[in-house]
Amino acid sequence: MEKHLCLVLLQPLFSAAGAGQFQVHNFSTSFAIGNFACSNRKFLISISVLWCRTGFEEDKNFHVVLNSVIAGRYHVTEYLGSAAFSKAIQAHDLHTGMDVCVKIIKNNKDFFDQSLDEIKLLKFVNKNDPADKYHILRLYDYFYYREHLLIVCELLKANLYEFHKFNRESGGEVYFTMPRLQSITIQCLEALQFLHGLGLIHCDLKPENILVKSYSRCEVKVIDLGSSCFETDHLCSYVQSRSYRAPEVILGLPYDKKIDVWSLGCILAELCTGNVLFQNDSPATLLARVIGIIGSIDQGMLAKGRDTYKYFTKNHMLYERNQDTNRLEYLIPKKTSLRHRLPMGDQGFIDFVSHMLEINPKKRPSASEALKHPWLSYPYEPISS
After folding, report:
1. Is 204 a catalytic residue?
2. Which of 54, 165, 281, 293 is most exposed, with minimal Cβ within 10 Å?
3. Where does the record place the Protein kinase domain (predicted)?
């Protein structure tokens, strides 16, 4: 027998008053969304518990059973895969008749807290996009079940990394043509423009965080706001997956929404060629790749960077410390160009990516400005369904 309770929660506080009896602690909490402080706002989360259990026993594993029903509502139809702090399943919502994705968060306090942050942000973003116009993942439900936080969202298809890899290895028709890259770019920029308009920085845009909604119509959605932050927040110095990390972040300079534009430029180059644009195994080798392909870093950026000394000598020579010998080794960037790296791209595409990958963030376009670039209105042949 299951009993459905509701808990006001920022930290899971629940105690058993006796066998089969439960006491729910309700708290008024305060949290901020950007500049909007919300005092006495209650963050509600449903908790589905077994009659004689608190729902917070120590159990690190959630065992997925096909054809089982979760919380009396979600009929499990397929196991989709796992990530660092979650696993995902496809389920049929018995209440709405829709197929959905259920993300099961591992039973770990840090993962739990980060997921609550993402839930808050998704609720905030979805509320500001009621018509679902801006290509951001839709959140449907969330609840605590059998010692795990579960997040229910719209069911999408493969991410761009997985799909591109499959497309190349299968030997079929190339999917990421110029017309499709143009369409994907517009959708991602519209998503970023919307997020940035709300004061949010995504902070982890990469191929794995852009999912296909429709292959035939070339529709995509941006996911994973777990690392996102408001521009008004105290910004973390460690953001973005390394291969898509903007120079200002590496150097320890103040950053803003334009770091997402840099990441998108990296993604587009990768989709065009099938290879990571700035291949690297450390921040220093990443900088070497950036300098070699895009050009030198402004002296003013080097002078103001809090972490410049970690990668450059006083004479602005790029170096890396050998972890085995503890000696400094100078890195000489191999000179090449975007045109050489993107042989399959047309001139308009190359110019656009170059525009996105402006090293100086003051010269780099915002998402709104990038949407006005001529390449995005070039009349390619319509995408066939």
Report:
1. yes
2. 281
3. 74-376
